Amino acid sequence: MKTNTQKISLTTPLTDSVVSSLQAGDLVLLSGRLYTARDAAHKRLVEHFQKEGKLPFSLKGEVIYYVGPAPAKPGYPIGPAGPTTSYRMDPYTPLLLQQGLKGMIGKGLRSKEVIEAIQKEKAVYFTAVGGAAALISKSIISSKVILYEDLGTEAIRELVVKDFPAIVTIDCFGRNLYDRE
Amino acid sequence: MRIVDTAQIQEKIKEMFLDMNYNTSASLKQAILDSMERESTPLAKNVLLQIHQNQEIAEREQIPICQDTGMAIVFVSLGQEVCLTGKPLSEALTDGVKSAYEEGYLRKSVVRDPLFERKNTGDNTPPVIYYDIVPGDQIHLLGMAKGFGSENMSRIKMLKPADGVEGVKEFVVETVKTAGPNPCPPIIVGVGIGGTMEKAAMLSKLASAREIGTKNPHPQYAALEETLLQEINLLAIGPGGLSGVTTALAVNIEYFPTHIAGLPVAVNICCHASRHREAVL
Known about the structure:
The complex is a heterodimer. By secondary structure, chain A is of the alpha/beta class.
């Protein structure tokens, strides 16, 4: 698969037309709002949905970043915040996509079910460079815990980002940058 | 008999965990720069450049290299001529880890109960501690901050003696292949061969902490390290898993005598943010 070296600037939340314009291999710079959620927050979101029939807040058009940031040093909006491995969120992801989630940022492989749901619901899977946490945190302008504060680093945060560097890894047509064939 | 107060060990442990989480070793920095030279695609170079820039920022600002500041592991080799005073040694090691993670803005990533409650302990303790009693009057400490992106991709297998060198190669390469982009390549591959099941796992952990560029002193194992490194890099998983010639920066093997019926092999994968420090007191 070919990679474009030109970086594409995107603003979140994402629309269907923006999502359909993205191809696996595109380098993007994301600006706007991201929600953080990883293992424990995903479990709670899905449990909430199973009980209440809806999510605790709307994910329509939103992008979730799989991250558990390190604590912020005084004067910093957030501590180092690189992506965590995505497959652990796979069991919960199809439901969130059905509820309107448009993008995910993580690292690593996704399940067949998630890839199918990405195509069906017209969404996109971005990856960021794992371990580049100090560098990535420079693109995060602000961070605010909005839900599950008791989870500490795993709480859901609303981040505002500017030119967050990511790579389109699975696009809404099912093209996957990790596929070698 | 030499008398050592455990407060001194506690302070050293704190210092080691802060240092390893902020500062990348010279050999690892150089390995990233060297692999940037070897890669030909803009994407692979870009991933390595981000890793390099990240190391520089973390060091300059004294902030963690990776948000996953790991579960703390401490290997203690205690000289049998040392007499310890002060609080119990395990408590001193735990308190050293606790103060590093609390005061150094490091992430608390440990849950008390692994299966049911999974509630965070709040201070990144307890560390995983291993003790060994050795001759002499010194205390050797090896501390590691192990992130779980790569720990989760590690495996162990009890091979048959008949599986031999080929069986070992196949298992190691297949483990790295299955891990793919998940453990944050380029990785360091620690391999433990022999002993019993848990001994092989321990050896693989120690192997992953060996400095890049060092070889196993036994020529056959050193040659196997080299062959495995080449075979792993032929997988072309590449930096960030986005294809390239640098999947691993090093393959380190440690071995131990084993049973006539067995050939245990453990593979402990470490990400490019390999964080460990040694100290002698």
